[in-house]
Amino acid sequence: MKIEVISATPLKYVSPALVVGCFEDLQDELFNACDTALEGCLGRLYASQEFRGKINSSRLIHTLGKLPAERLLLVGLGKKNELDDERLRQAAGNAVQALRGARVSSFATALNLVGIPETALEAVCEGTLLGSYSFDQYKTKDRDERFGFEEMTLLLPKGSNKKEAVARVKHTVALCLGVSLARDLVSHPGNVATTGYLAETAHEIAARHDLTCEILELDELERLGMNALVAVGKGSAEPPRLIILEYRGASEKERPVVLVGKGVTFDSGGISIKPGAGMEEMKTDMAGGAAVLGAMEAAAALKLPVNLVGIIPAAENMPDAKAYKPGDVVTSLSGQTIEITNTDAEGRLVLCDALHYAQKYKPTAMIDLATLTGACVVALGHEASGLMGNDQRLVNALKKAGEKCGERAWELPLWDGYGEAMKSDIADLKNAGSRDGGSITAGWFLKQFVGKTRWAHLDIAGTAWSDKARPCSPKGATGVGVRLLIKYLRGK
Ligand code: BES
Ligand code: MN
Ligand code: ZN
Predict the structure, then answer these.
(1) What is the dihedral of CA 173, 179, 185, 189, to 10 degrees?
(2) Which of 273, 340, 372 to mutate to test the pocket of ligand 1 (most atoms within 8 A of CB)?
(3) What is the C-alpha to C-alpha distance for residues 219 and 221, in angstroms, rounded to an integer?
(4) Stated pTM of the model
């Protein structure tokens, strides 16, 4: 969708639809002007409680020539003093959902609210772009009848700084392109989004923004001794790969932040195979890797003043004659030996080699994202990602970034006692313990591979995919992590 910015009076602007945000407890100048033009229609809606400005509500009405805009879309903003960026994002998301329902592809949005947060423009653009996302590449029927948005025109009040507004829109568009990239990757089926496809995507990002891209292929992974990553990929016809993207936005001397994303392109569970019901969702098991690719794309487009390395250990977890088995012992890149007690605990295996490898970049901080454990979905549901780490400042910074951008993360402890469950009788570690504290024991396992590097781990198993539509995220892939990472990197 194109976003245009102009200074104009909403009541004089001709468009297929005018979107107006409405408070529950306050009727501002624009609201009253619309109400007058429509001969009291808005007042009636409030009086009859058909629409009262509540959050997550909207109401589309035809103006029948009483306003230059053909339709008026009222969007609830809730109570005036409770308005924040997240509510604005959601209101904008709800607005585009309503417009999609009415097949209105171009519209104008009035941004004339008094005393709204300074970041309102970004929030509205973000909600609009994220809420209008759809993924229908695999639908072949009725192509010409399919709906697509064309343009949103942001109407700024007189006297606002248009140049600055245009720059802010441009920023938000770049960020949302990163989110869409991540969503697309997660939405693609496992037979398309293979390890090779992820590598190809990394190459494309590198070419677009002049980043360095390196792909370590199977023979190189074996030569280096990345046996944990190699083990997970052994049962698949798609070879495992280590994808490395480097972005330089700061001086050469500055140590980078390393982002690591789990890239299991399909997780059947391997020999410890998963039950059939719902297994198709395991095409999303590369969502951590997708978030890293999306964040690299956005960071480069935004020209963030940081050095970044994105690392994606990619593999497909399948059962086969050559597959790794329960009882096998593998020697990880770090030298630590791991007894495989469950081939379905494969995420920590691909990550442990990547986290060890990442230390060669001498990172100031390392953040990994992974759809790592079903236990995290049990603990936090779909409202927050699990957050763990060995550095409280880093953990706090990520938590705060998440709150600001609406991708919440909640800390779980990583006390030493949790490690007891991961001790093996014959090797240094085992890859799966009991079900108890499953997200934490997985996090504890990862911690054994980060050395002294400041590190945090985000378990996005419950947040990468949504079975229900949300205002800023239609059903399916959420692209979680991209906005959180960029928010964190911007605050650094
Ligand atoms: N990819 C799964 C975790 C997952 C579950 C992601 C549900 C998204 C939704 C992971 O590889 C896995 O299978 N974890 C096991 C670990 C267990 C065997 C220790 C799990 O959570 O059951
Ligand atoms: Mn698994
Ligand atoms: Zn998995």
Answers:
(1) -110
(2) 372
(3) 5
(4) 0.98
Tell the burial category of 177 from Cβ atoms under 10 Å away from its Cβ (0-12, 13-18, 19+). middle
CA–CA gap between residue 216 and residue 333 (Å, rounded) = 14
Ligand 1 nearest atom to the CA of residue 371, by list position: 6
- Tokens for 439? 């997200």
Q: What are phi and psi of 78, to 5 degrees?
A: 75, -155
* Contact call for residues 110 and 158 (beta carbons, < 8 A): no
R_g over Cα of the chain: 24
> Which residues face 307 on adjacent strands?
248
Specify whether the CB–CB gap between 365 and 256 falls below 8 A. no
Residues near 130 by beta carbon (within 8 Å), at least 6 away in sequence: 89, 93, 176, 179, 472, 473, 479
CB 105 within 8 A of CB 15: no
- Cα(77) to centroid(ligand 2), Å: 41
pLDDT, tens digit (0-9, with 9 covering 90-100), for 144-201: 889 999 999 999 988 888 999 999 999 999 999 999 999 999 999 999 999 999 999 9
Name the residue with tokens 């960026």.
Answer: 85
Neighbouring residues of 402: CB distance < 8 A, sequence distance ≥ 6:
384, 385, 387, 408, 409, 484, 487
